[in-house]
Amino acid sequence: MRLIAKAIAVTGAALLLTTGAATAIEIHNGSISQDEVLKTQKAWGDALIAISKEHEEKGPDAARVMAANVIDAAYGYRLGPVLFKPTLTQEPQTFRTDREGALAYFVGQNPNYPADTGFALKGWRKVEVNNAAILLDGEYATTLGKVSFTDKQGKVTTVDKSWTFKKDDAGVIRIVQHHSSLPYQAK
User: Fold this and answer.
1) pTM of the entire structure?
2) Which of 8, 42, 157, 184 is 20 to 30 Å from 88 by CA-CA measure?
């Protein structure tokens, strides 16, 4: 059994376990690849643009529904708290470790988060990710770099951003850490 476990750790293969009459398969999803990270970042940017357009075309309620679906698909709130520090937050609600806080940040309109105006509703038309580095570590990957957002007037806002992604038990990559801030500007 020790030899089998060692082989699985090396290959990331599935393990067939037999206990009495029942058979169970333990799935090992393997590592996150750089290509998966880049696709996940692109999907996040595309979703942000889609929420902006949904808001413009169908209003705030439709944007809220879409944003909730995006959060459920992209973030790991079902796995536990997500270490989410959005760009435009302030004390006492700087960090958004639960789904409600994330949704409020993206689309506003939550009395529990009165300062949130809806980052995803700012008319975004283009999102570009420029990674300075990607660290791949098994079922986790962490990125650090800049993300530029272009609005419908062509104004570009660039932020410093780090993400950590985790592959869940179903093999889906989830955001479990998301930190974003405006770049430091010397006075």
Assistant:
1) 0.81
2) 42
